[in-house]
Amino acid sequence: MSNGISLKELAAELKLAPSTVSRALNDSYEISEATKKKVISMAEKLNYQPNPFARSLRENKSKTIAVIIPERINNFFAQVMDGIEEIAHEHGYHLLVYSTHEDVEKEKKIVSLLQNKRADAIVMSVSSQTSDVSHLVKLYQRDLPIIFFDRVCSDIPTTKFITNDYESAYEGTKHLIQQGCQKIAFLMLAKELSITKERYRGYLDALKEAGMQPEPTFSLHCCRSDEENIQLITELLKSENRPDGILSSVEKLALATYHSVKKTKLSIPDDLKIITFSNMSSAGLLSPSLSTITQPALTIGQECAKLLIKKLTKPRHNELKDQVIVIPSKLTIRESTMAR
Amino acid sequence: MSNGISLKELAAELKLAPSTVSRALNDSYEISEATKKKVISMAEKLNYQPNPFARSLRENKSKTIAVIIPERINNFFAQVMDGIEEIAHEHGYHLLVYSTHEDVEKEKKIVSLLQNKRADAIVMSVSSQTSDVSHLVKLYQRDLPIIFFDRVCSDIPTTKFITNDYESAYEGTKHLIQQGCQKIAFLMLAKELSITKERYRGYLDALKEAGMQPEPTFSLHCCRSDEENIQLITELLKSENRPDGILSSVEKLALATYHSVKKTKLSIPDDLKIITFSNMSSAGLLSPSLSTITQPALTIGQECAKLLIKKLTKPRHNELKDQVIVIPSKLTIRESTMAR
DNA sequence: TTGTACGCGTTATCAG
DNA sequence: CTGATAACGCGTACAA
């Protein structure tokens, strides 16, 4: 056996015209049952596989969706991918996957690669460095359907799926206050990120409602590097005026905090309480177990894919409206925020 | 702007023949520098993007590699993916990614989807349910280059990348013995998996060398379901004749053990020591911190991609020889295997 | 140095 | 119901 047979060869074998065979395989109504059967059985016998590129060329679609995420080693994004894949496969779509590693330059390269319609549509969450979005606008202008999730681009008029960032951060902060925290810090990646803004707002409003002033040094901007983040957080924890509570806007910063705490004489939750946005399944196994705000990652992925496929299947009736769809997160209280 | 311009249209704009434009863009030696410049600048001006499907159809290659992994929410596989992606992107290759969720039926479907040469090659790690490999043999017979990593198929004559499973398991077991364990259990997924077999051999040989008998009930076969695994392990830990040491052949079973221990009165490492194959970055943050055998995941991914691309680029000189390439793991001792 | 013609494997249109 | 033909966009042999 070697490299597969073409429609034409299959037709020759059957002594039929290629067009007839094509129609038979596509179950066209204008082909008799008898020939359909003959064609199908021969196709199976010879293990005929249609060439996807010829088809894509002809139909101007690839049955492929591109997914761009900031990082792969991240439970949230991995779960979202699982959700997208589940729905995509149900509808015969394939997934091209790209990770930007939180690097805008990488993101731009990837996006530029996708301009040629290699994928029928794009699902993405922008990198933490992304503030100028002209590369994404370009995509949009090329008529490539695009959906954002989690870290969205409000400038681009399409559908976005997020969790209730504001409320969750608000509730998380309120929880810290109820547990007795007086000085609460907020850990963020880039301040330009949509999720940062919303979660920060929730944090500030919760403080305000409790009559607390947000300490400027308590808004900590972190970066991609775990080492640097641990350094930054350690400094904050060792400072004269250190926080006694932390709301971490992403999982990795909570883990960095755990590492930092090990470098101090502090202990969680006695000296410092912490809650974080995170989808880590082993949050409950950490020392101490970590209170989390768990995002509906799988659902977000599924919904993204469902909407996109609806749009791809029936483009007329389904525009990607400029709207934000919110799916709520779930607070799970564990030891890291226990009152003494 | 709408949907991109074709080579023909670009040629018309330039008042040149399509073939000339094609050659200019591909930097052919038979085109004058002057026209090359004109063509390139116009191509940029009109944002010309070659149609990848026309190209794939013509050249019979897609510049795409398919990657099949058993699960996405797994630090090892995520890191391997990162390694593959890094090298693939350097060479202009795209990645189609599929997860089997440890399900052979899913694996078969995916593999069948790839028969049509949608991808130029495949990198994969088989599901834990995979014992019959006829679906993979079929791929191989189709002349689709395929490379295995970690969970390999010895029946298929191609290159495989693994870690030193036998030695690592041997060393891990020996470490447990040195720390005072007398009754060591081995946790595995399916016993048919290549990694299970090798790691089990290492475990058995270490026991033997220490003059210990392998207790039959201490070889625990687990499954995909975390709940069931926790149940199984809990039973083992509560049994009359319980182990005092555990070598876990995969990360998830170690985490399941941590959950199980919480359901008993035992404590790690006093009553039970445990070491596991794992690439979890937060192993050091668990309670207690978890001793691990860390696989060179990134390197494995990079090497797979390098070899595959060499093969795809210069097929004549690079056959995928039937060999196993071993890249060693690293033992990291933490609290979970401390002697009392 | 540039242009013409063809084929890659499909599917849709038009004829019969 | 089936067959012939054209077209999708590109690259290459062959011609000029």
Automatic annotation (TrEMBL), chains A, B:
Pfam families: LacI, Peripla_BP_1. Transmembrane segments: none annotated. PANTHER family: HTH-TYPE TRANSCRIPTIONAL REGULATOR GALS (PTHR30146:SF109), LACI-RELATED TRANSCRIPTIONAL REPRESSOR (PTHR30146). Residues 5-59 form the HTH lacI-type domain. PROSITE patterns: HTH_LACI_2. It comes from the Bacteria. This is Transcriptional regulator, LacI family. GO terms for molecular function: DNA-binding transcription factor activity; transcription cis-regulatory region binding. Keywords: DNA-binding, Transcription, Transcription regulation.
